[in-house]
Automatic annotation (TrEMBL), chain A:
Taxonomic classification: Bacteria, Pseudomonadati, Pseudomonadota, Alphaproteobacteria, Rhodobacterales
Membrane topology field: Multi-pass membrane protein
Official protein name in the record: ABC transporter permease
A matching Pfam family: BPD_transp_1
Family per record: Belongs to the binding-protein-dependent transport system permease family.
SUPFAM superfamilies (alphabetical): MetI-like
Transmembrane annotation, as ranges: 12-32, 99-122, 134-155, 167-188, 227-253, 273-296
Keyword Transmembrane annotated: yes
Matching Gene3D superfamilies: MetI-like
Domain ABC transmembrane type-1: 95-296
Keywords: Cell membrane, Membrane, Transmembrane, Transmembrane helix, Transport
Taxonomy, superkingdom: Bacteria
UniProt source species: Rhodobacter calidifons
Annotated compartments: Cell membrane
TrEMBL record, chain C:
Domain ABC transmembrane type-1: 89-278
Family to which this protein belongs: Belongs to the binding-protein-dependent transport system permease family.
Transmembrane segments: 23-45, 93-116, 128-147, 153-172, 206-235, 255-277
Protein's UniProt keywords contain Transmembrane: yes
Identification of the protein by name: ABC transporter permease
Organism: Rhodobacter calidifons
TrEMBL record, chain D:
Chain positions covered by the region annotation Disordered: 552-572
Species for this entry: Rhodobacter calidifons
Classification of source organism: Bacteria, Pseudomonadati, Pseudomonadota, Alphaproteobacteria, Rhodobacterales
Domain ABC transporter: 20-271, 292-541
Descriptive protein name: ABC transporter ATP-binding protein
Superkingdom as given in the UniProt entry: Bacteria
Chief location bin: membrane
Membrane topology: Peripheral membrane protein
Length: 306, 517, 293, 593
């Protein structure tokens, strides 16, 4: 177990190294010059060159990357070109919000998606199942911005149940988390449905029925843990999708997460921030996959960690 | 006093302002976007200032100033007893330090270029500017290497704000996060990515202001949501204005429309035509494009929030040429011109545009107008950084300036020329995206800028007017419209309307607005 | 000696069986409708999709709601929405079907190979997949598209290149369990070549998964294209696509709901239609489902 | 109809109390063609303390009957369409689901055919047991746990306390089946339905389970419905027998009568098909060339672990095995589950990495290039244990049979199809069924399809890995006949792998007995069955149930010990078995010191 963990951690570190290299390279070849934006409109050519040198952006790629990596290993993620702030500070100040939102969203996603999937599987082929299938399509296909605004409008502005955006209390968390939950639930419900249908056919479900257990117990205690296994692997994937999708929800709900930070940085080619956010989100994804792999054997003792 | 605040104004209260984007930095030497511009203005003061709600200069930290006969020496007499937020009194040393700092290349100030007229600018560095001298603790003498008529405006720029050395040294690179100035407000709280709180500077040297106890800036808020919150009474001023999607709704509701303040601003939206890329190297073609654009339609698309432009300068800018009608909307004439240039069948080109609403829409309207005279313009709808890159590198044949457009740094006609129409900006990486360079006009501009004598102001403006007319003749730009500001405020906001469309303090002049209770 | 349990099902073509299913037929009809709309757009569209009509905007510059002239209303530039939707179907079909299909193919190939070859090939492929998964797709898309010149086909390729990852993961897991099944071992003892085992024997069993991911992917890729074009790397305006019609107008969902909900419904309907057909196809193509249901 | 005569006979016995009465039961399935009857007009009584066996070929409706009693029919496709099931005062067919739930597990319990999959893999044994108890008895956790341990002890599972915390996959098949029995009996039900409780188990384990059932019945007085197609099991366990065919009851009688005086023709055929020990036809010893030769073959599966993925353990699946198979011979490999039989088969077809030498037709297998391997595979073909699993369910039978021809590029499409049709006919299937899919055939038919496929390349050696174990007796007999016929016709050799001693006795020329990866005894059929020397061989033979009710065997002391493990640390090897020739090539193993 410990050996497995260490091996996986080394693997993860290599993945992060790969991600950092590729990102750095892509940003290097990207046709947009950050120096021009720093220097401003009235800057002379010398000023521009001067800034370029100060930032080391005149060096060959491999030197720049080496420097970045060297600093990174000492915990220095650099300073934002345009915000002039330590990237680590920027990210640290926003990370808790994103993690909280992610946690809330995944809980909602799972609650909604799994419930929908289970119900659809139990009522397979009936109208309810079909309705849920269509629902899952709607949630997968719905434009994030519109759903976010719609929910905000109805539940915060019109009904006043929740604050109109912001961050701080549990009430602030509900709407954005539910929005993300609704948007992501479609995938889970479809996965859960098919997995559940398979499991419900299994011999041990028949055994459970033969024992005279109630339907609820059979579904929740016997079928669910077995059916949820493929879904757990999905959570790892989902964190990746999530990291890509929080920008809109964060900005509609005024949620101070790293999605907004990333979006602005991409627009302005603020390389240190892009690098930092990329690494953090890659880290989250790698960690998510690792967690998924660690949780799976807790549920299914047959899976051995090797 | 040069300005009488609203007699009904009451001190106290707090307002909430929202923004979508994070506040970049509050370091006056570095902050250079319209969002932190007004915030820095309230935290810091320069030697010069503007009368609230106008473009009229007034003394700031300088009590008075003298300009030498030749216009090369400015002697500023500082106000006594002005205190920084850290409690120390401001002296002439601080003024020199601040100017040295902003011009030191290590500071990487995007505004350093504004000070190029100060003697010793070329050698600015850790040693400081030779042209700035401390005469006595309350007197600073600034020597210019050439006359600069805009110099007093330059001294009113945020970049010329006075900062205390010890605070800068202490904060180091983080001064932008821990600003210390002499302004009406001081920074009380900054939660990255969430909110900033400005708190009244009780020791402010201008008596009676500010009125507000505090200003809360909430960042990361979608403009549409900000407006919803305003309607719900949670926000006082949405910093990003009224989003296009809500504009008709707001203006259609008398109650809300009554709270909208409209004003002009020193802004021109234009299309640059790269004179080095064929066929825009032909004057006829550039003129044809100028005649092809239906500006009224474009104004309609942005819900009439602008007036069609005829020339680079906006109407409220001194030096604006009254009575000049610009190129008429005349597709037939444009076609004829194209034919003259040997391009009767039109041609294909590219139009770069920044990707935020409404710019892509405006670009499409432009595209349609061009198509009408046979020009097929493919739109390159890109992120700001990419457009700026293409513009600087001179690879973009046409750029719609929206979103990155020129809002004047100070209300002087020269501000629309140098970097964006002059030869200095026409280099690789420069901001003159037309790559237009006319030495004759450049010489005229230089001449105008050296007419520092206030007595010659009229003459100088005439000269500038000529320069811009010269530009129009060569047609490197298509001036499309001059945007107007529509600021919506909450019911409780007080203060005259001009404060809400203050040309140099967007969205509002925090120092003078107040709240009714 | 016939076994009594053998049910005699009259052999029928897959198509005939497909056509017997009402839902599948409904889905097929929608797909045909959309394809026809896209192909015949120049003939059916009431207006030029790029024509910013003078009477398409109110005097205040607001778009027109659906009426007798503009059946689905106009957009913010006064263009006819119906015409734009018809032309936009061309783009969206390419993205939703071609790009998404390509992603599916890449993902399936990677997943199937990695799942089948447990050794270093599988290891390398899966580590690469992990890396890609950890990599922000949007950034990759931006860079790829900035390096190439944006065009519909480049965008389709970019989407394919960033979207295959999840499919690869899922297919990988399934393949590795399929690879241990007896009939695969049987096939090996017959001397079957690896490609034959992979494509003739394993691939058909992956069909249900591929269909689920493929159909769910339609709407997400169509929307992704809109995000990309917003960043300047999708199809460029004024070329319409369903995704970018929504994207351009999403803030107007109150002021001009037709600009958001009509194309939104179109995307959902198309994805749903493919799903209905896919589901039916899966059942029809799965011989073990014959006679059951 | 035999029913009329049978019923009075059973009714005449001095009936103790009847616990379950099935009257005119009909079960039908809804299909595209309308209702298809699965069970028709079935009637029987079950009395307290008796064991009623339901026998019959696969698909005759045995399982459906038991599911109908439990109320577990796969609704809505399959449902009861007539008759009644009286249990005490209640008609089970009319009960609501909640009411049925009260009965299930508590008063009628069931053990299923497949112990490997009938337990929930993600719940501990203890949890599954306690849950069953608490579902019907209002007891607390600790009490449920106590009773569960008691039940495990009752089924003589070693270390019951430890087992409570284990997961099903940590137990062997026999142990799992005991857990199932413990679960079924924990609540002391009046009726226990055991659906093929031992079919999937080794003979030795089967023996233990059967003994256990009998003991428990004697102690608790439970009435048992025992479903099986193994007439040996019937003979040993049942008081009365119902024989079913195609959903109908063809004969009902006491066990003695069924075996002594079978009335229905079907029953007679069924009994005739039962393989019996010592009934194998003697054949002349085969003295042909060796077609396959294994010398000192070792197969080990490394188990990796640790940071660097080093080998921490090895599964010693096959240890130093040597034998050869002669041309035209049937060589049998017997032994318990997990002893390495399949691994040898896999090594022979190149699916398992091995050390030592394997020669096919004089050519060594090691170091062959892919082309050579492909060529060699033409000479050795394999028929798998589970025909359903070994046939790609998405391919038509015609394609499946022609598959080897396609792979080896023999002939064109038309001739391949013709050959497939020919092979179908040869294994006794209709050529017209070429376009059907595997699931449309019965198990026996599927196994024939596998054989046809193996024959397509006219191999020298066919490996039949438990090829008939899953089939019911009559079908099994037919398949065995087919194998024999093909051998005499085509002169090919078989490596016949089985754990069923009776079958092996019927078909093989020579036999090797394996235990924990090593051969412990090897010789001709006569030598092994006539003069078994190794204690393990004897135990295997003794464990075989004898299909004769008069030969009731005495209960032996049972051992609940676990099979020793083939897993060792690197560097450690199991003690090697040395084979000694005790005359005429009869090799008997003794463990080297
Ligand atoms: N869900 C179902 N739908 C339709 N037919 C079914 C279903 N389940 C079983 N059958 C059919 O019912 C018949 C009887 O099946 P059953 O399982 O009772 O046979 P069995 O006697 O138990 O055979 P085996 O010895 O193979 O277990 C078979 O022909 C089978 O094909
Ligand atoms: N791929 C593998 N990796 C590790 N161990 C394996 C593998 N395959 C088989 N084994 C182990 O090798 C041993 C021999 O297995 P094998 O399948 O040959 O047994 P068998 O005699 O055929 O049993 P059965 O009668 O159950 O089919 C078993 O302990 C098994 O767990
Ligand atoms: Mg059965
Ligand atoms: Mg085996």
């Amino acid at each position: 177990m410990a050996a497995y963990l260490i091996r996986r951690l080394i693997q993860s570190a290599l993945i992060l190294l790969g991600v950092s290299f590729i990102t750095f390279f892509l940003l290097f070849v990207l046709p947009a010059d950050p120096v021009r934006q720093i220097a401003g409109r009235s800057a002379t050519a010398e000023t521009v060159e001067n800034i370029r040198q100060q930032l080391g952006l005149d060096k060959p790629f491999i030197v720049q990357y080496g420097r970045y990596l060297g600093a990174l290993l000492q915990g220095d993620m650099g300073r934002s070109y345009l915000q002039k702030t330590e990237v680590a500070d920027l990210i640290l100040s926003r990370l808790p919000a994103t993690l909280l939102l992610m946690l809330g969203a995944i809980v909602c996603e799972l609650l909604l998606g799994l419930t929908m999937g289970i119900v659809a599987a139990l009522w397979r082929g009936r109208a309810l199942d079909q309705t849920l299938m269509v629902t899952s399509f709607v949630t997968v296909s719905a434009p994030q911005f519109v759903v976010s605004l719609l929910l905000l409008y109805v539940f915060a502005v019109k009904l006043g149940w929740f604050p109109i955006g912001g961050y701080g209390t549990f009430a602030h968390l509900v709407l954005p988390a539910v929005t993300l939950g609704i948007l992501g639930s479609g995938w889970y419900s479809r996965m859960m449905r098919s997995s559940m249908i398979d499991v419900l056919r299994a011999d041990y479900i028949r055994t459970a029925r033969a024992k005279g257990l109630t339907r609820a117990r059979i579904v929740l205690r016997h079928a669910l843990p077995n059916a949820i296994l493929p879904v757990i692997a999905m959570i790892g994937i989902d964190i990746g999708i999530f990291m890509g999708g929080i920008v809109v929800v964060e900005s509609v709900f005024g949620w101070p997460g790293i999605g907004q930070l990333a979006w602005q940085a991409i627009q302005r080619v603020d390389i240190p921030i892009i690098m930092g956010v990329t690494l953090v989100s890659a880290f989250a994804i790698v960690l998510g996959n690792l967690l998924a792999d660690l949780i799976a054997p807790l549920i299914d003792p047959r899976i051995r960690l090797r | 006093q040069d300005y009488t605040p609203d007699p009904a104004a009451k001190p106290g209260g707090s307002i909430t302002v929202t923004y979508k984007d994070d506040v970049a930095t509050l370091d006056p030497a570095i902050g250079y976007d319209w969002q932190n511009w007004s915030m820095i203005k309230s935290l810091f003061d320069g030697l010069m200032d503007y009368v609230p709600g106008t473009t009229t200069l007034r003394p700031g930290l300088a009590e008075s100033y003298e300009i030498s006969e030749d216009g090369l020496t400015y002697t500023f007499r500082l106000r006594a007893g002005v205190k920084f937020h850290n409690g120390r009194e401001m002296t002439a040393e601080d003024v020199k330090y601040s100017l040295d700092r902003v011009t030191n290349p290590e500071t990487q100030s995007p505004g350093a270029g504004f000070f190029s007229a100060i003697a010793g600018f070329e050698n600015a560095g850790p040693g400081g500017l030779s042209g700035v001298e401390v005469v006595d603790p309350l007197t600073v003498k600034i020597t210019l290497s050439r006359p600069d008529a805009t110099f007093l405006h330059v001294m009113a720029l945020n970049f010329a704000s006075v900062v205390p050395k010890e605070a800068v040294d202490e904060a180091g690179a983080d001064f932008g996060k821990k600003p210390v100035g002499t302004g009406a407000f001081k920074l009380a709280e900054w939660t990255l990515g969430q909110r900033l709180v400005f708190e009244k500077n009780a020791d402010y040297w201008r008596p009676g202001v500010p009125f507000l106890d505090s200003v809360v800036f909430e960042v990361g808020q979608e403009p549409v949501v900000a407006l919803l919150r305003l309607q719900n009474g949670e926000v006082d001023v949405p910093g990003d204005g009224i989003p296009p999607a809500k504009f008709t709704e707001v203006m259609g509701d008398p109650a809300q429309a009554a709270r909208v303040v409209v004003g002009g601003q020193l802004h021109t939206g234009y299309i640059t035509l790269n004179v080095t890329i064929p066929p825009f190297d032909k004057l006829e073609v550039r003129k044809a494009v100028n005649m092809a654009i239906n500006k009224d339609r474009i104004v309609q698309i942005i819900n009439g929030r602008a007036v069609p432009a005829t020339q680079p300068l906006p109407p409220s800018m001194p030096g604006y040429t009254e009575g000049y009608a610009g190129y008429p909307y005349d597709p037939e004439g444009a076609k004829a011109l194209l034919a003259e240039a040997g391009l009767a069948d039109g041609f294909e080109t590219e139009l770069y545009v920044m990707n935020t609403d409404p710019n892509p829409r405006i670009a499409q309207a432009i595209q349609q107008d061009l198509a009408a005279i046979g020009i097929k313009a493919n739109i390159q709808n890109l992120a700001q950084a990419n457009v700026i890159e293409a513009g600087g590198a001179g690879t973009a044949p046409m750029i719609w300036s929206g979103g990155m457009a020129w809002i004047a740094d100070f209300p002087d006609p020269s501000n629309f020329y140098g970097p964006i129409l002059g030869c200095a900006g026409a280099v690789d990486g420069g901001w003159n995206w037309s790559k237009f360079c006319d030495p004759v006009l450049d010489a005229k501009a230089a001449e105008a800028d050296s007419m520092a004598d206030p007595a010659k102001a009229e003459e100088r403006l005439k000269l500038w007017s000529d320069v811009y007319m010269g530009v129009m003749e060569q047609a490197p730009w298509v001036p499309v419209f001059n945007e107007e500001r529509y600021t919506i405020k909450s019911e409780r906001m007080g203060g005259e309307d001009a404060l809400y469309v203050d040309p140099v303090s967007i969205p509002v002049n925090y120092d003078y607005v107040w709240v009714k209770e | 000696m016939t076994d009594p349990s053998v049910v005699d099902v009259p052999p029928q073509g897959a198509l005939a069986r497909l056509l017997r299913r009402k839902l599948a037929l409904f889905g097929l009809a929608i797909i045909v409708l959309v394809v026809a709309g896209a192909v015949f757009a120049p003939w059916i569209a009431p207006f030029d999709p790029n024509d910013q009509m003078f009477d398409g905007l109110t005097l205040e510059g607001a778009p027109m709601p659906p009426d007798g002239k503009f059946l689905m209303g106009t957009d913010l530039l006064g263009r006819d929405l119906l015409s734009r939707l018809l032309y936009g179907a061309q783009t969206s079909l390419v993205i939703g079907v071609v790009a998404n299909g390509l992603a599916l193919v890449i993902g399936t190939l990677v997943g199937i190979t990695a799942g089948f070859f447990r050794g270093w090939i599988g290891g390398v492929l899966m580590r690469f997949t992990d890396l890609m998964m950890a990599f922000p797709a949007l950034l990759l898309a931006i860079c790829l598209a900035a390096i190439f010149r944006p065009s519909l086909w480049i965008v389709a390729m970019v989407i394919a290149l960033v979207n295959w990852v999840q499919t690869a993961r899922v297919i990988y897991t399934e393949t590795s369990s399929l690879a241990t099944r007896d009939f695969i071992a049987a096939e090996r003892t017959l001397g079957a070549s690896t490609p034959r085992i992979l494509f003739r024997h394993i691939l058909p069993h992956l069909l249900p998964t591929i269909i689920v991911w493929g159909t769910l992917g339609i709407s997400t890729t169509v929307l992704l294209e809109a995000t990309l074009s917003f960043l300047g790397i999708g199809v460029q305006p004024p070329t319409p696509s369903w995704g970018n019609i929504i994207f351009e107008n999403q803030t107007y969902f109150q002021a001009a709901p037709w600009l958001v909900f009509i194309p939104g419904a179109a995307i959902i309907l198309l994805a749903l239609a493919f799903n209905l057909v896919g589901d039916a196809l899966r059942d029809v193509l799965d011989p073990t489902q014959r006679g059951r249901d | 109809m035999t029913l009329a005569e049978a019923l009075p006979a059973s009714g005449a016995a001095p009936a103790p109390e009847t616990v379950l009465r099935v009257e005119g039961l009909c079960v039908s399935a809804r299909t595209e063609q309308g209702l298809k009857p699965l069970v028709q007009d079935l009637s029987f009584d079950l009395r307290k303390g008796e064991t009623l066996a339901i026998a019959g070929e696969s698909g005759s409706g045995k399982s459906i009957t038991s599911l109908a009693i439990m109320g577990l029919l796969p609704q809505p496709a399959v449902r009861v369409t007539g008759g009644s099931i009286r249990f005490g005062q209640q008609d089970l067919t009319a009960l609501s689901e909640p009411a049925l739930r009260q009965v299930r597990g508590d008063r009628i319990a069931m053990i299923f055919q497949e112990p490997m999959t009938s337990l929930n893999p993600v719940m501990t044994v203890g949890a599954q047991l306690s849950e069953a108890i608490r579902a019907h008895a209002p007891v607390g956790r600790t009490e449920a746990r106590r009773r569960a341990i008691e039940a495990l002890r009752a089924v003589r599972l070693s270390e019951p306390e430890r087992r409570m915390g284990q997961y099903p996959h940590e137990l062997s098949g026999g142990m799992r089946q005991r857990v199932m029995i413990a679960m079924a009996l924990a609540l002391r039900p009046e009726v226990l339905i055991a659906d093929e409780p031992t079919t999937a188990l080794d003979v030795t384990v089967q023996r233990e389970v059967l003994d256990l059932l009998r003991d428990l019945q004697a102690r608790l007085g439970t009435a048992i419905i025992l479903i099986t197609h193994d007439m040996g099991v019937v003979a040993e366990m049942a008081n009365r027998v119902i024989v079913m065919q195609q959903g109908r009851q063809v004969e009902t009688a006491s066990t003695e009568d069924i075996f002594g005086r079978p009335q229905a023709a079907y029953t007679q055929a069924l009994l005739a098909a039962v393989p019996r020990l010592g009934r194998g036809s003697a054949r002349a010893p085969v003295t042909g060339e060796p077609i396959a030769r294994l010398s000192d073959v070792v197969v080990r599966y490394p188990l990796r672990g640790g940071l660097l993925g080093r080998i921490t353990h090895n599964v010693h699946a096959v240890e130093h095995v040597s034998f050869d198979i002669r041309k035209g011979e049937t060589f049998a490999l017997v032994g318990e589950s997990g002893c390495g039989k399949s691994t040898i088969a896999k090594a022979l077809v190149g699916l398992a990495p091995h050390q030592g030498q394997i020669e096919i037709g004089g050519q060594a297998m090691q170091g062959l290039d892919p082309a050579g391997l492909k060529a060699m595979r033409r000479r050795v073909q394999m028929v798998f244990q589970d025909p359903m699993a070994a046939l790609n369910p998405r391919m038509k039978v015609g394609e499946l049979i022609a598959e080897p021809l396609v792979i080896h590029d023999i002939g064109d499409a038309a001739s391949q199809r013709a050959r497939a049709a020919d092979l179908m006919a040869r294994v006794g299937l209709e050529a017209s069924h070429l376009d059907r899919y595997p699931h449309e055939f019965s198990g026996g038919q599927r196994q024939r399809i596998c054989i046809a496929r193996a024959l397509a390349l006219q191999p020298d050696l066919i490996i039949a890995d438990e090829s008939v174990s899953a089939l019911d007796v009559s079908v099994q007999a037919r398949v065995l006949d087919l194998l024999r016929a093909l051998q005499s016709e085509l002169g090919m050799s078989y490596l016949f792998i089985s754990h069923d001693m009776a079958v092996v006795d019927n078909i093989s020329d020579r036999v090797a007995v394996m235990f924990l990866g090593q051969i412990v005894e090897m010789g001709t059929r006569a030598q092994i069955f006539g003069n078994p020397q190794h204690p393990y061989t004897r135990r295997l033979i003794e464990a075989v149930p004898i299909p004769d009710p008069r030969l009731k065997r005495l209960s032996r002391p049972r051992d609940a010990s676990e099979v020793p493990s083939p897993v060792h640390r690197p560097g450690h090897e199991p003690a090697r078995v040395i084979l000694r020739d005790i005359g005429d090539g009869h090799l008997v193993g003794t463990s080297a010191g």
